[in-house]
Each structure stands twice: as structure tokens, then as C-alpha cells.
């Protein structure tokens, strides 16, 4: 998990690796090139998820050309790496997908000796059920899913998902284009787990989403805030950081932590098993975990940050934004997704049928 900020130039969902906008040769000339690193790094990451300035700094410091490609969902990333894990050196996966990739033997074990800045990460983020010893993953960012509402245009009270079914919101919503998230939230509407696999519950979740569809203007996980800001949508279900960025530009946009419950997620760096430049990937992770670099990322893309040392450099307004860092009492209503194994195929089928209707 995502997500009016400076973006990675030239990125498009499902693209193949491309060189960053900066001239790679400048880095080699002006930086402090480490002879133990490769000359390039192939990065596979969500769109709108890392500042170009950070990529430039790494490139200039180490003389490493960064090639990058983007994806729109964990499932898209998984499918590509399952077919060819040698084209990429580093990717980002949500917790449940880390678990799935481990089961499929798609990940390389990470050498913690090459990542001394791992000490800056809060211990609670290093001991997740998906990878309790952080052997195959390193925390990058975490966050939640919220409801965002333009209060200048929406006058009905909204406290949870049930309020989004109001006919007054016909063709007014932008929601995540993500099967696990949306079906999971429909499960929560029923008082069930976000990870529910009972077919009867899943079919009811499908019907709930079908009932919601007349109110849905667009499915968008990449940049749902865009539709909220340009007026095409007046409310939506989106990542907390997206809602926070939208509110920066339009203070009338408010965020709600749904009373029924909500999704929590943690995104981690992972190294594909056949990464051709593994040491360089580890050097990049270590670079990202520098407090000042991590804080720079949060300033541009205000997802919740697991880097405790970076918190000391971050604006208080970001750290106290409930859309990004939910109050402790609200965190009790949050749920993390887990890998559902073969049952995921049923969710994919439900989502495909829903989108076609």
C-alpha cells in the first residue's frame, strides 16, 4: 500500500524498468562510488511512493543508475516476479504478500549486516506474523484505509461504510481498485474478519459491493486524491496518506476512520530470489533507512513511518495527523490482512465478476 507531490518521472503502472530522469553519469562523476556495488539497480515499486529527490541522492552518492518500473497492486507485482524474478533487484510488498512470496520461494534472504540502519526501525515492525524475524523483508512504510469526504459538497453525515450507500452519492465515490482491500472491507461491514474465507460471507460481500457500485465513479488505487481534488468525486475509500495529501490542497476534505473497522497494512522491501544486484539492493535499503532520508520520504508521501529516528526530524503536524497515525483507541478497530493461499483465487474471481457488471 496508496498514493499533489513531486512524483517519479515517467512512471506508469505495469511499466518495464526505465532509467530515472537524472543522468546516471553525473552520479558516478560527483558521488562517492562504492566499488563493491553494481552499476545499476532495478527497482519495482508502487507508483507515487518514493520521491525522485531520494532516487537522485542515492544515484549521486553511489554512482548507481536506478531503473524502475511500477505496479498497481500486490497481485500484479507477484505475478510478474513469479514469472521472472531476475529482472528486478528490489520490490515492495504488503505483509500478506510477503507471506505468499515466502511460501512460493520467490524471495532472497536479506543480509542484515549490510543494513546497519535497521536499528532505526521500531521493533514492533520487525516482528510481524508475515516475517517474524525479518529474514526476507525490511519495513518501508505502513498505514491504513480511511473514508475521505469533501464536506463542501457532501452534507449527509458519514461515520462508516454503510453511509456510502446513500443514493445522494450516486457516481460520487472513488474507491480502491484492490480485490483484497475492498472485499475485506465488505467482510468488515458484516462484522466478519477482513481475512474471512467462508464462501457464503464472500458472496454477501460481493453483493454489498454490487449494491455500492452505482455510487462508484472510479476504482483507483494509484492516485484517488486526484478525482477528489478535481471534483469528479466527492468522497471515497482510500489510503490515509492520499486523504492527507488531498486535505493539504483542500481543507474541506475530511477523513473518517470507519466505525465498523478498517484495514491496516505494512509495506516492506523485499529482494527477489534471483536478483542480479542483491548487495546494491541492500545498500539502497540501508540508504532509505537513514533518518533524514526516511523523513524526506514522509514529508512528500505522508504514509506512517516505522523509522523511529526519522520521527525526530518530522513535522509534528504529520505525526499527529489521525488520517495517517490513528489514535491508539481507534487502532483497536484496525485489521491486517494475511495470505489466504488458494482461497485468494475465489476473491480474484469475485473481483473480476464485480468489475465486469
From TrEMBL:
Domain of life: Bacteria
Keyword Lipid biosynthesis: no
Localization: Periplasm
A Gene Ontology BP annotation from the UniProt entry: polyamine transport
InterPro entries reported in the protein's UniProt record: SBP (IPR006059), Sperm_putr-bd (IPR001188)
Annotated keywords: Periplasm, Signal, Transport
Binding, spermidine: 48, 96
Species per Swiss-Prot/TrEMBL record: Brevibacillus fluminis
Biased composition (Low complexity): 19-31
Keyword Metal-binding tagged: no
Name the UniProt record assigns to this protein: Spermidine/putrescine ABC transporter substrate-binding protein
GO cellular component: periplasmic space
Cited PANTHER family: SPERMIDINE/PUTRESCINE-BINDING PERIPLASMIC PROTEIN (PTHR30222), SPERMIDINE_PUTRESCINE-BINDING PERIPLASMIC PROTEIN (PTHR30222:SF17)
Pfam families reported for this sequence: SBP_bac_8 (PF13416)
Residue numbers spanned by region Disordered: 13-32
Main location, first listed in the record: periplasm
Amino acid at each position: 500500500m496508496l498514493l499533489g507531490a513531486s512524483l517519479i518521472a515517467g512512471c506508469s503502472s505495469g511499466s518495464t524498468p526505465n532509467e530515472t530522469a537524472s543522468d546516471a553519469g553525473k552520479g558516478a562523476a560527483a558521488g562517492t562510488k562504492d566499488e563493491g556495488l553494481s552499476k545499476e539497480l532495478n527497482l519495482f515499486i508502487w507508483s507515487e511512493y518514493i520521491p525522485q529527490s531520494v532516487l537522485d541522492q542515492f544515484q549521486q552518492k553511489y554512482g548507481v543508475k536506478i531503473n524502475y518500473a511500477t505496479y498497481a497492486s500486490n497481485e500484479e507485482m507477484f505475478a510478474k516476479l513469479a514469472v521472472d524474478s531476475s529482472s528486478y533487484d528490489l520490490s515492495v510488498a504488503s505483509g500478506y504478500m510477503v507471506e505468499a512470496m515466502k511460501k512460493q520461494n520467490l524471495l532472497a534472504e536479506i543480509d542484515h549486516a549490510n543494513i546497519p540502519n535497521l536499528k532505526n526501525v521500531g521493533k514492533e515492525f520487525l516482528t510481524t506474523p508475515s516475517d517474524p524475524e525479518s529474514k526476507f523483508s525490511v519495513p518501508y512504510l505502513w498505514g491504513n484505509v480511511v473514508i475521505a469526504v469533501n464536506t463542501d459538497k457532501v452534507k449527509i453525515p458519514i461515520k462508516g461504510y454503510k453511509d456510502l450507500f446513500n443514493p445522494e452519492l450516486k457516481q460520487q465515490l472513488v474507491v480502491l481498485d484492490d480485490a483484497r482491500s475492498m472485499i475485506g472491507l465488505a467482510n468488515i461491514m458484516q462484522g466478519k474478519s477482513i481475512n474471512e474465507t467462508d464462501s457464503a460471507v464472500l458472496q454477501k460481500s460481493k453483493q454489498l459491493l454490487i449494491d455500492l457500485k452505482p455510487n462508484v465513479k472510479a476504482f483507483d488505487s494509484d492516485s484517488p486524491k486526484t478525482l477528489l481534488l478535481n471534483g469528479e468525486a466527492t468522497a471515497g475509500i482510500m489510503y490515509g496518506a492520499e486523504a492527507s495529501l488531498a486535505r493539504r490542497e483542500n481543507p474541506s476534505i475530511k477523513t473518517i476512520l470507519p466505525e465498523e473497522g478498517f484495514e491496516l497494512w505494512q509495506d516492506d522491501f523485499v529482494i527477489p530470489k534471483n536478483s542480479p544486484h542483491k548487495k546494491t539492493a541492500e545498500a539502497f535499503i540501508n540508504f532509505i533507512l537513514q533518518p533524514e532520508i526516511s523523513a524526506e520520504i514522509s514529508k512528500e508521501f505522508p504514509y506512517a513511518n516505522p523509522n523511529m529516528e526519522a520521527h525526530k526530524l518530522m513535522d509534528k503536524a504529520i505525526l499527529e495527523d489521525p488520517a495517517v497515525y490513528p489514535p491508539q483507541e481507534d487502532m483497536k478497530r484496525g485489521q491486517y490482512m494475511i495470505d489466504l493461499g488458494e482461497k485468494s483465487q475465489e476473491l480474484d474471481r469475485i473481483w473480476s465478476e464485480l468489475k465486469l457488471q
